[in-house]
Structure prediction request, 384 residues.
Amino acid sequence: MQMHEYVYLDNAATTKVDPEVVSAMMEHMLVYYANPSSSHFLGRSERQILENARQKLANYINCHSNELVFTSGGTEADNIAILGVAKMQSEKKNHIISSEIEHKAVLSSLGELERQGYSVTYVKANRDGIVDPEEIERLVRPETFLVSIMYTNNELGTIQPIGQIAHRVRKYGILMHSDAVQALGKIQFNVKDLGVDMLTVSSHKIHGPKGAGALYIREGTAISSMSFGGNQERGLRSGTENIPAIIGFVKAVEMLQADFWAQNEKIKNLREYLEQSILSQIKGTAVNGCKKNRISSISNVNFNNIDSDYLLKRLSSEHICISSGSACQSSSMEPSHVLTSMGYSNDSANNSVRFSLSRDNTKREIDYVLDVLVRIDRDVNGEM
Ligand SMILES: *Cc1c(COP(=O)(O)O)cnc(C)c1O
Prediction:
């Protein structure tokens, strides 16, 4: 492997922007620049472009275009959903149910509500990394107004039973939100069949540009604005829309649509090859979380006796990019909150890393990674 080459297996943190996405953005930016809120003809044509993009995303997840709000990404969409519906509740409705394995964008929004006096119950994941819909229903109180559970966990790739959870809680008049950032492009879902009231998606996890995302909000959902300005995006996200990024996002969505099955099959085969080879060539390794109910791209592996920080550094020096858990956490030395929620000891969580693949990876790259992993294991654990 030459110096300028590298193997990127950190696609759950972010993905490479597709060249076709870049072209679509460039073509737009080189010609258009008007503000879609301006009433002159250039502004009106920009507005038309924005609304066309919204309609395409709406078609993809099966909602009305007026049920979609473009945001700066997944984090902002999670914040708007959680803080925005909380603000609309009467004093008596002050309880939320979520899980311990959510992304920090959800956990930190909920933490802010707890500081404001709301009460939040966090369910644990089982040893498979999956939450239990029955347990969530048992925790419902008269004061509960929101349930927020992620569709796909970003550290394990495990798929949560969102349809079942929505079905169980919505009969009590409780709103259901799901962070589907890691599900978009990996699961073919549709918001109407899922039965959720709100759903978060993000562009840069699907080969789109950073700085774009969207929140689906079911028509009729009471939600209040958390930021203030020119009232763009139904007043929920003021500020001039980032149209180049939105165009790139929607182009990336269209590319998913084009060959969803072929891409996911390819990624899954590579992931299985990587995983099976690690398990058979490196003693004491194990896959964390459910192997079956999982998206195609993620593998979370426990390396016996090898600290994840050390493993990441060694791999990085061989030009291999992976993460331990989520990218947001990897600079802090804390063990993964997802693995500890599943009952793993701190030691065991600290020996775990995440490989996340994309359609750009090749078998040759995986073979190189396997060679390096075997070498590192020999250095730490000696010859078998
Ligand atoms: C990446 C990610 C986010 C944050 O999305 P941004 O667009 O980076 O703000 C939220 N939730 C999950 C599950 C993610 O993987």
Observations:
- Residues 73-75, 103, 105, 150, 154, 179, 181-182, 202, 204-205, 213 surround pyridoxal-5'-phosphate (CB under 6 Å).
- Residues 260-281 form the longest helix (22 residues).
- The first strand starts at residue 7 and ends at 8.
- DSSP finds 13 helices and twelve strands in the chain.
